[in-house]
Design goal:
CATH architecture of the largest domain: 2-Layer Sandwich
CATH superfamily of the largest domain: ATP-grasp fold, B domain
Distance between the termini: 92 Å
Number of domains: 8
Structural class: alpha+beta
Radius of gyration: 37 Å
CATH topology of the largest domain: D-amino Acid Aminotransferase, Chain A, domain 1
Helix content: 25-40%
Strand content: 15-25%
Number of strands: 52
CATH class of the largest domain: Alpha Beta
């Protein structure tokens, strides 16, 4: 069945839709369905997308293509709508660059059914559903009517209230009402109808887009900002724009262009009554800069998105537990609510990023409530699903209040479908993986469409066809190869390994050939544990959550009940034998359980130990052999192997912990004499740039070394501070450190770091053929990619092809040479299966190149964000095809070996560059091992695979057996020769004599049974501790120190060995102490905290700086608690000084001058007939603010007030700080009383009493 996957669209959630469409494309059961990717652009054009574009990071990375984008000196990334009105021919060309444009009328010939992964406008509003109904194409999800209701929050509120669902106070406000009325009036109306706090959000957007929670302290100004944000409007004072520097202006426009949190483009920009539509951020930058130069003090820019909202909803938020619940329609017509997910965030509102991006909010399935209350939530969701006429499935969000009621926010008729969404997590809790759930959604949607349109014979045919195919697939399930998928571990790369394992599982689950079994690895080398885990655990955020569930098993009672209710779905669509709790799997049982192993391990767990165990069991696996894995995982041995074969590598110095313990100063001098700063420090083993740092000074070198060689229980706080490690950044202790020279351009005209994937294919003659993928450039925030930068999808981080030249012909020539050098490196190390090569490339003016490998990963990252998949797409391999090729290569070695053994041995060069004999682990099958013999003066750059002396693997079979007999015979002759026997006897005698001397000396030196109890030095002053230690013949060495203003300087806070342990006299005690001298730190700018004293105080306290309030100044023009300036030891510090950098010692106290806004009400002053200066005095004296001034008068100070807003009403009160608008006339208005005395306000007027008053003041 051809399934058209519709994704993208014009809504603000288009990127989530793009990610969800890709997940559906990858996860569909390929034995049942043929996915057809149909991209809907932001103008609602349909494009049959070239599948390679599915694996771009973002829509903006491929559509529109770069050649159609207008120049952007500031690098703004835009969508199609920012190109403005385009001629039809140019629009056609843009679409053809991404795929094939298709019309609505073509759809019935291209697809049998539509899978809708669109959100918001033209996705969940019934528009595309209506079009598909007219075309006679069935689709997933709800129909037209339910979709129109489901997208509008204001209609939902009214309907749910009528249906008797618990609801809160709400108020619907239209854009027209907001623009026509006074903000103060709307504010008072909102308070009366909703109260505080109030949630302000658009009526037809996603759950948290445009959402602001307004507190009472926010006042009218905060309310205005929230309402304008919900209408996607922005008011920008011209003076504020002028105050911003260039960096702040660019940052503001980038935020403005964000369709999720900003306005998005195009924008209507209004200034001084003139409105102009602006399509591109560069154009808006020019417009703002141009008008700001001539703007007056009170001028403002009004910015409003063209995709504006027409109405918003203000409602009282419910305090309680936030949840999200997927509801499915069962085949018997009943609704089934899956286990609701609880969402919690450490701080702030639960916005879209927290809801949908991994790691930003904690997710718990089911919600942490008793079963009875979970059933209250589920019953409410099922009832709403039925009452609103929803079909197939829906997602319903809500809050469970403290009084035991479920407040629902209304349904979302298209759930988010990306891999880590609630949609898959909740289905996994009842035993369905992603592929099985998608099959069910398609099947039940067909049934729902047929129920609505019983006369559609085509729908009935498709349903019957799908039923037959599902039955056939279930019957063939036993023929699939069972693949054990091992991932996890305990190193810093464990979370990335989980991401890889999850992605591989999804690709294999939709395969016709493989049945993946997730196996989580935990423990340490030599004591590894394996657990088969349920698919629900596989979808957890990280490895630690999975391990915690393994260590603390036990299902919520509600899950047991829900699984029983959904047993009919799981039994037909799920696995034959589902598991819901982790099951321990001994390694010895793996051969009875699986046919092969897919290793998704990263770092230390994949360095040979696991491979040896699998070899012993005779199980095939992907990646290098045990010996090859040990070589590749050791960065020193691997690069030195390449160096001995003529490949340029960084200068390396490998030092051990014992070298440091023998003498720290000699250790550091040894590094500094062999390498110049800056130096790269890294673990000798490991991956993902974990603990890789650039060291620029002796201070950083010492800190890095102390941190790497610290005792396991010590944190090394001061060293972490010097190395500027993030709070949760892992830095495990090491036994070795590999120091390398920092690779720089070295005179090259082009210099970049890149990564290239490769696939090694076994050939019938036993040789290896390498496919090297086109490398992609690594762009990092520092000198090396962090683990997150390497592997986790992030904003503005597309996979970018490595560009060596701007000229296409030259680019291809250089690319070919780079790939050839990478293949040479792979052959030297006998890389097998799928791998990645990280390397620096230098391209010189004469177009010669130099490749400098950094690392070769034999078990590369295969998470969804890996650069391998876009690279493979460039080779014509879809992700599931790449995974399949890796597995096929892993499962074939035995067949290839047999073919080789039966063939005639090939001629062997007299001086082979390498020999690669087959090694057989006891009880296991044969695998090739990279046993390398180095030939002197081998120039790898001049050797090619096709020439003698090149990298041709040697034949095996008879040659191997003969070689073994030859070596065994020569070894026997040597062992019985007289020279060996004489030397062996002499060596044995020497060893015996040395043993006797050492044991005799130890008897004299060692006084057995004598040891001392180690004193407790913690809390003692260092000098006192040194004196005490000398008396007891102990030595004290300080290995770490840091400053803490709350602790006594020089006080010891940690020691090793611990207090009260037994130790010999003369033992060295290693201690850490509090430093006497505080460090100087650079103060953050005020803008980084929005000038708010509370936010700035939090930043300062984290830096060990104590803020205090020196003075509060009344200012109604600024927010409460805004910082004006502050003092340090009497020195005044302003925001301008902070932007240039101000340092203060840790532990300092800063005295702040902040604003104060008095919020009590005051009477409206009577200003009619007053002169302007008198009116201004009365307004400021009442703690009010002068608003707009109207009237064309030559001398404002002597003009009279003939009208005021708000009008004077005796006894009426208004909030302090409110604006008062004045209307002026040059002459005194008629009916005004004669002025009696203006001495207080006129320079020349006054009587004696007034003069006395002035003189006294």
């Amino acid at each position: 069945m051809r399934i058209g996957i519709f994704f993208g669209g014009p809504s603000r959630e288009r990127e989530l839709s793009f990610s969800g469409g890709r997940a559906v494309y990858d996860n569909l059961d390929r034995g049942l369905f043929e996915p057809v990717p149909i991209f809907v652009d932001s103008l609602c054009h349909f494009i049959l997308l070239d599948w390679q574009n599915l694996y771009q990071h973002s829509i903006r990375d491929f559509y529109p293509a770069a050649e159609y984008l207008p120049p952007s000196p500031h690098g703004f990334k835009v969508y199609l709508e920012s190109l403005g009105e385009l001629p039809p021919a140019e629009m056609e060309a843009i679409m053809r660059k991404a795929g094939r444009p298709i019309s609505r009328e073509e759809l019935p010939q291209l697809i049998d059914m539509a899978f809708l992964a669109l959100h918001g406008y033209y996705g969940e509003d019934g528009a595309i559903q209506q079009e598909l109904d007219n075309l006679g194409i069935p689709y997933t999800g709800s129909g037209t009517k339910a979709s129109k209701t489901g997208i509008d929050r204001s209609i939902q509120k009214d309907l749910m209230s009528v249906l008797g669902f618990p609801s809160t106070k709400s108020y619907t406000l239209t854009r027209e009402e907001w623009l026509d009325a006074r903000a103060g009036d709307i504010y008072q109306e909102a308070i009366a109808q909703v109260g505080f706090p109030m949630a302000v959000q658009p009526a037809r957007q996603g759950a948290s887009i445009g959402l602001t929670v307004v507190e009472e302290r926010s006042g009218l100004e905060g309310f205005e900002l929230a309402v304008n944000r919900a209408f996607f409007r922005e008011i920008l004072p011209a003076v504020e724009w002028k105050d911003r520097n260039e960096y702040e202006r660019i940052e503001y426009l980038e935020l403005l262009a964000d369709i999720w949190d900003g306005l998005g483009f195009p924008i209507d920009a209004t200034f001084q009554g003139q409105t102009q539509t602006v399509y591109h951020p560069e154009a808006l930058l020019a417009l703002l800069d141009s008008h700001a130069t001539s703007a007056g003090e009170g001028d403002v820019f009004f910015l409003e998105s063209l995709r504006r909202e027409e109405k918003i909803v203000l409602e009282a938020p419910v305090r309680g537990k936030a949840f999200s619940c997927i509801v499915l329609r069962r085949e018997n017509g009943e609704a089934l609510a899956l286990p609701p997910t609880e969402l919690t965030k450490a701080s702030g509102i639960l916005d879209n990023r927290a809801r949908y991006l991994p790691g930003l909010a904690h997710q718990q399935i089911p919600i942490a409530l008793p079963t009875e209350q979970i059933n209250v939530i589920r019953a409410a969701c099922e009832r709403l699903f039925d009452e609103m006429g929803l079909q197939a499935y829906a997602r319903i969000d809500g809050t469970f209040s403290a009084d035991g009621q479920a407040y629902l926010n209304g349904p979302k008729t298209t759930a988010f479908l990306f891999s880590s969404s609630f949609f898959y997590q909740q289905a996994a809790a009842i035993g369905l993986n992603s592929t099985q759930l998608l099959t069910y959604i398609i099947r039940i949607s067909l049934q729902e469409r047929l129920a609505v349109s019983p006369g559609q014979e085509r729908y009935q045919e498709l349903l019957e066809q799908l039923n037959r195919q599902i039955q056939e697939t279930r019957q063939r399930a036993a023929d699939k190869k069972r693949i054990g998928l091992i991932f996890g571990g305990s190193t810093p790369e464990r979370h990335l390994s989980v991401e890889s394992g999850r992605n591989i599982f999804e690709k294999l689950a939709g395969s016709e050939s493989y049945d993946p079994i997730p196996l989580f690895l935990s423990g340490q080398a030599g004591a590894y544990r394996l657990h088969q885990i349920p698919v629900g655990l596989l979808l957890r955020n990280n490895a630690d959550e999975i391990r915690s569930s393994i260590d603390n098993p036990g299902a919520h009672r509600a899950l047991t009940e829900i699984r029983a209710q959904g047993e009919d779905i799981t039994a037909y669509y799920g696995p034959a034998f589902p598991i819901f709790e982790p099951v321990a799997i001994p390694f010895e049982e793996l051969p009875q359980m699986v046919d092969g192993i897919f290793l998704a391990l990263l770092g230390a767990p994949g360095n040979g130990g696991i491979q040896e165990q699998l070899d012993a069991l005779g199980l095939p696996y992907n990646g290098p052999t045990a010996q090859g894995a040990r070589l590749l995982s050791n960065k020193y041995q691997a690069l030195q192997t390449l160096k001995r074969n003529g490949v340029t590598v960084a200068n390396q110095v490998l030092l051990h912990k014992r070298d440091y313990e023998a003498g720290a100063e000699a250790f550091f001098r040894r590094v500094e004499t062999q390498l110049d700063y800056p130096i790269v420090g890294k673990p000798a083993e490991g991956g993902a740039s974990s603990a890789v740092k650039v060291l620029r000074s002796r201070k950083e070198l010492e800190a890095y070394t102390r941190l790497a060689f610290r005792p396991i229980q010590e944190e090394g706080m001061e060293a972490r501070r010097i190395m500027r490690l993030k709070s949760k950044e892992e830095f495990p202790p090491q036994e070795d450190i590999l120091f390398e020279s920092l690779i720089t351009a070295g005179g090259a005209s082009v210099f970049l770091e890149c990564t290239a994937g490769l696939l090694a294919h076994n050939q019938p003659d036993g040789s290896l053929h390498y496919d090297i993928f086109a490398p992609t450039e690594n762009v990092s925030s520092g000198h090396f990619l962090s683990p997150e930068e390497q592997f986790l999808a992030r904003s503005n981080a597309p996979v970018r092809a490595a560009r060596f030249s701007r000229q296409q012909e030259e680019q291809q020539a250089i690319l070919g040479r780079v790939k050839k050098r990478m293949e040479q490196a792979a052959r030297i190390l006998n890389v097998r299966g799928c791998a990645t090569i990280d390397a620096f490339v230098r391209v010189f003016e004469d177009r010669s190149i130099q490749l400098i490998p950094i690392e070769i990963n034999g078990l590369p990252d295969l998470s969804g964000a890996s650069s391998l998949f876009p690279q493979a797409a460039g080779q014509g391999l879809r992700p599931y095809e790449l995974i399949g090729d890796i597995l096929a290569s892993a499962l074939q070695p035995e067949e290839v070996t047999a073919a080789v053994s039966e063939s005639e041995p090939a001629a062997v060069p007299e001086t082979p560059a390498f020999t690669m004999p087959l090694a057989r682990a006891e009880g296991g099958q044969r695998r090739q091992e990279p046993i390398i013999q180095y030939r002197t003066n081998t120039n790898m750059e001049e050797t090619s695979p096709g020439r003698d002396g090149g990298f041709r693997p040697q034949p095996f079979g008879a040659y191997f057996a003969g070689k073994v007999r030859e070596i065994a015979w020569e070894a026997w002759l040597f062992l019985k020769s007289p020279i060996f026997l004489r030397n062996f006897g002499g060596l044995a005698g020497a060893i015996l004599l040395l043993f006797m001397l050492v044991t005799g000396f130890m008897r004299l030196y060692t006084r057995h049974g004598e040891s001392l109890q180690v004193p407790n030095y913690v809390g003692m002053d260092l000098e006192d501790a040194l004196r005490k230690a000398r008396k007891q013949d102990f030595k004290i060495v300080v290995i770490d120190s840091f400053f803490d203003s709350n602790q006594e300087p020089n006080a010891i806070y940690q020691q090793d060995p611990k207090p009260l342990q037994r130790a010999k006299e003369g033992r060295t005690i290693y201690v850490s102490k509090y430093r006497v001298t505080p460090d100087s730190i650079i103060l953050p700018t005020l803008i980084s905290a929005g000038y708010n004293y509370d936010q700035y105080s939090i930043k300062l306290k984290r830096l060990d700086i104590m803020p205090v309030i020196k003075e509060r100044v009344f200012d109604n023009k600024q927010e409460e608690n805004s910082i004006l300036y502050f003092f340090h030891h009497g020195r005044k510090i302003t925001d301008e000084m902070l932007r240039h950098g101000v340092k203060v010692p840790k532990g300092s106290t800063l005295e702040f001058v902040i604003t104060e806004r008095i919020t009590s009400d005051v009477p409206i002053p009577d200003l009619i007939c007053k002169r302007y200066d008198a009116a201004a005095f009365l307004i400021s004296g009442s703690n009010l603010v002068i608003g707009n001034i109207y009237g064309d008068v030559a001398d404002r100070e002597s003009a009279y007030v003939y009208r005021q807003e708000p009008e004077y009403v005796p006894g009426q009160m208004i909030p302090q700080g409110q604006q008062v608008n004045l209307y002026l006339t040059a002459s005194k208005p008629s009916g005004c009383p004669e002025e009696e005395d203006t001495g207080l306000l006129d320079d020349g007027g006054g009587g004696g009493q007034d003069e006395d008053f002035d003189s006294n003041n």
